[in-house]
Each structure stands twice: as C-alpha cells, then as structure tokens.
Amino acid sequence: MSAVAAKPAAGGAMNPTAMAVGVVMTLILLGICFAVSPGLGLMTLIGVVIGGVLIGFGTHFVPVGGAPAAMGQAPGIATGVAMLAAGAGLAGLFGGAWAAEQGLVVAVVTGGIGGGLMMAITCMMVNFVYVFGMGIPSASGKVAKDPITGDTQAEYKSQGTEGHGLPFISFVGGVIGGILGGAGGTLIYIELLTLYEETLPGVMNITSEQVMPIAVSAAGMFAVGLFLVNAVLTAYNITGTIEGPHDPKFKRWPRSIVASAVASALCGLVAVLIVVL
Amino acid sequence: MSVKVEVIEGGVPHTTILAAGLVSTLVCLYLTYLNVITNTELFSFFGGLAVVAALIWGSHTIKVLCSYGIGTGVPSAGMIAFGSGVIAMLLATKFDILAPIVALVLAAVIGFILGYVSNNILNMKIPAMVQALTEMAIVGALSLMGFAALMTGGFTFTGLTMLPAKTMLTAAGLETTYQYSFIGGGLIAVAFLLGALAIQHPFNACLGPGWKQDRMLMLTAECGFLSMIVAAVMSFALISAGSALIALIVAIIGWVYTYGQYMEMSKRDAAAWLDAKPIPEVEGH
After folding, report:
1. Residue B146: which residues within 8 A CB-CB, separation 6 or more?
2. Is-contact A223 A185, C-beta < 8 A?
3. Average pLDDT score over residue span B145-162
C-alpha cells in the first residue's frame, strides 16, 4: 500500500514560520553547546552540522526510482532514498575512516571519493541491467533535453511511463550526491572521533591507547545514527522519487537544509554531552 | 498528505499497545538489574524480552504512521527509529540505574523535535507524524538498551565499555584493552541492525488489504526472538556461559512458539493453502 498505491502529496511549498523556527532552534542548540563545552565541543558540533547539511543537500542529487523504477516505469535506481543515501554515505564513511590519521582534509576528500565511487559503480551497473537486461533505453520524463549532453528525450520514452533507465544527467547527479554524502558522513565521524580521543581518556580514567576502540566505535555509531536520521528526513522531503538535479523536486532543497541543520545540531549536541556530563 | 489510506479495523487500539509495550519494556529492563543485586548474570535474558516487547509496540507504531502513505517505504521508518534511538541510548547509559528512564525522556525529546521538523519544516502535514516519531525513537533507544543488557548483563556505560568480570576472555588477561566490550567491540552495530530489521520487516511483510493485527504482531515477536537468538549467541563472549545458555534457550523456545503461531495465523488468513515441499524429490529421474 504505502509504496505503490499512495501518491504523496506533500507539496513543494515552503513554510516560512517553521523555517525561521528551525533556524532559531539550531542557534539555540549551538548556544547550549557553547555553554556546556566552549572550544572543542562547539567546534565538533559545527562540524557535525556542516556534515549533516552536506548529507541532506547531497541526497537531492541522487536519482531515486523506488518501486516504479524496478518495473522500468520511472527513471532512477530502483530503491528508496534512505537506502541509497545510507549506502553512499556509509561507503564514503568507511573510505574516509581509513584515512582518519592523515588529517581532516585528506580524510574528508577520501570519504567523498569513496561515496562518489560507490554511486558511480551503482549507476553504471544499474544502467547495464536496464539496457542489456530489461532492454529499455535511458530517457528522462521530466525534461525535454538532457541539460548536459543536449540529447532529446521524448522519442525514447515509452508511452504511459515517466521515463526509464538512467539518463546522463541522473548519472552525474548520482556521483555528485555520493561525493557530498560521503564527505558529510566522514566529516561527522572525524569530528566526533577527534573529540572522543581528546576527552574520553579523562572521563574514563584510562590511557589514550586504551580508549581507541571505544572512541572509534562510539564515533562510528553516532555517525551512522546521524546519517540515517538525515537520510530519512531528506527522504521525507523528496517524498518518494527524484530524477536528479533537473527534477522540479530538486527545488525543495532549502527545506531539507534547515531540517538537516536542526536534526544534526540536536543529535550532535547529545553526542557531545556524552563526554561533558 | 492527510488522507488515511487504510484504517485499523478491530483489534487492540494503539494506545493499549503503547501502554503495554512501554510498561513491559521498562519492567523487563529493570529486571536485568537483579544481576547487580544478586551479583550474577542469570537475569540477562530479561533484556531480550524487553527487546521483543519494544519491537511489538514499535511495529504497530510503524503501521499507524505508514498507513498515511509517506511515500518513502516502510524500512525508512525503522531506520530513523534506530538512528535517533542509538543517539539517545548512548548518552543515557551514563546515568547508571536511571538509564532506561533517561533514555525514554531523551528519545522522546529527540523524536518530538524530529517529528516537528518533518511535519512543519518539510511540510509533511501527517497527523500521526509527531507522536509516531516520538514513539519510534523511544522504541529504538529501549530496544538497543535491551540488547545491551542481554549481551553484557547490564546497561551502564562502564559495563558496556569494559569486559565483564566472569568470562573466558578475562582469564586470558584481556580486561585492560576495552576492545572486548559491547561498544568497543562494535557489537552495538550488530544490535543496531538486528533491531532495525526486526522492526521494519513485519509491517512491510503483512501490509495490504488482508492485514490482520494479530498476525503482524506475532510476526514481530517472531522477528524479535530471532534477533534475540543471534544476540544470545554473541553474549557467550561477554557473560558467563550458563547465563548466556539460559538466554539462548529462552530465545529458541520463544522463536519456535511464535513461528508456529505465525504459520497458524497465515494459514487462517490465506484463501487456500497448498503444503508444497520447498525442494521437490527427484526420484525416478
């Protein structure tokens, strides 16, 4: 019922009052963090909020097809927003975690490349299955011409469908989304790991070598939790399917940025409090 | 979207399931505290029962939320439940005996704000959204705490980060590494997905015109006990073998019973039933 029959009707309209409340709420949460842990804690939280916003924004680029795409009736990768965002972000996070010792910039870039690579492979194999397995060409239903290549789409689109396959613009969008999501996830992980490595030995009265398994695991779990919260909120914003950056639904991204900022500030504050309390 | 696609016909009302689930989860979690009082680990299996109770409540909450057609698929609801739950649970473990209560309050606050964000900032406008996300964050946090109690015998931050006293690993002199623990060993990640899969599967599997409340809740209990079996096997590393064995036996008994019941209900609700064998016999070929 929920995936097939229901046509989600959450419109593209912005709610200015709620957006203002969201911004104020983010600032209040940052203020609380400044009160309990100025310095390292606040820097961590700012990094977490930036990472969360990157995830929320990046997910809009990913071509999500859902169940219709599995039947070749809509363009995109045939699964849900939350699964794709989590896949890209976690692939990036694991890539970035390897480079954690090489500093923030290297790790974040590595995470971005990991996420982008994962999405590039996924998009390519999805198109392989569509073209050679299901025998359908790639055509967008939302635009007349591909914004990058300029290829016309209408001739290739089957009647009664919203397009099918993975057009070039969707492929590019998927890779951009993977890069942003992977970089965001890695940023959250690195910021929390740095905080825990600095503070947990004092909290638990153990050496910094002993604390490593705890710090890595706790930072990783918080990063995964934050990632899933942001991915699902973005899924709620998109409500089902999106073709990529050329889709009209893409214009909803400001809402998602505010929502991700609030959610990341809230969950990040809890993650900081664990070493302050 | 404010059109409700599917209504709850008959069955136990959601508020009753909410109250029963919340109370039984908290009671079961606090029963694991008998471990501390009696200085044993024999009561760890109550943590697994807390997980099952919380999951039954949570899967019905998912049913209430996803009946509105949120357009993102049922699994996303399970993911946000445990994503927000793990954050609340990790902080709550710092509060020793108050941990379950703190997890409840903290998860409720996080879930409430996430519900506000979804409904107002993201313009979802679903009446059940705020309450459902609040409930699901609580379910996620309490389920993870139940898994923690099942695997380590306790739910405090110290207990989850250190190797408990009476295991074979202690004899090997590994108690100072902190790597053999619920958090340090990454067992929390396994618990996370065991719970997330168990909470999202039942409604995803049972939804449709033939949805029956008792069948879905029985499937949830079955999934919960299945997760408990895996968690009980993992607990052999962290608690004494006898206590882990009790948890494993309880989980297997629960799983066999609920699986049988679920098959009965599936046969009851099916239009026809052909008892085909999964692998055909190939004699005479």
Report:
1. B25, B28, B29, B47, B48, B49, B50, B51, B54
2. yes
3. 87
Task: Give the whole-angstrom CA distance, residue B221 versus residue B203.
Answer: 12
Q: Residue B39 — left, alpha, or beta (φ > 0 → left; ψ -120 to 50 → alpha)?
A: left
Using only C-alpha atoms, chain A has a radius of gyration, in whole angstroms, of: 20
Q: For B75, which of A80, A233, A266 is closest by C-beta distance? A: A80
Give every CB contact of residue A89 below 8 A, 6+ residues apart in sequence. A55, A115, A181, A182, A184, A185, A227, A231
Q: Give me the half-sphere count of Cα atoms (radius 13 Å) on the Cβ side of residue A95.
A: 25
Tokens standing for B176? 């100072």
CA-based angle B93:B97:B103, to the nearest 5? 45
ipTM: 0.88
CA distance B122 to chain A (A): 5
Q: How far apart are CA B275 and CA A245, in angstroms?
A: 50
For A202, what's the count of Cα atoms within 13 Å in the CB-facing half-sphere?
A: 9
Which residues does chain A have with pLDDT short of 50? 1-9
**Residue A92: exposure state from Cβ atoms within 10 A (0-12, 13-18, ≥19):** buried
pLDDT of residue B29: 93
- Percent above pLDDT 70 for chain B: 89
| Full 3-state SS string of B129-179 | HHHHHHHHHHHHHHHHHHHHHHHHCCCCHHHHHCCCCCCHHHHCCCCCCCC
Helices (H) and strands (E) in chain A, counts: 8, 2
Nearest alpha carbon to residue A214 among B160, B141, B199: B160
Compute the distance between CA of residue B205 and CA of residue A268 in angstroms, rounded to an integer. Answer: 34
Domain coordinates of chain B in residue numbers?
Answer: 14-165+177-269
Among A94-103, B37-46, B212-221, top mean pLDDT goes to: B212-221
User: 185-224 in A: which are within 8 Å (CB) of B?
Assistant: 204, 206, 210-211, 213-214, 217-218, 220-222, 224
DSSP class of residue A155 equals G
Pick B80's closest partner by Cβ from A9, A211, A232: A232
Look at residue B171 in the predicted model and tell me its pLDDT: 56
> Which residues have CB under 8 Å from B173's CB, separation 6+?
none
Contact B91 A11 (CB under 8 A): no
pLDDT of residue A6: 43
More confident residue, A145 or B249: B249
- Residue of A14, A217, A274, A275 to mutate when probing chain B, most B C-beta within 10 A: A217
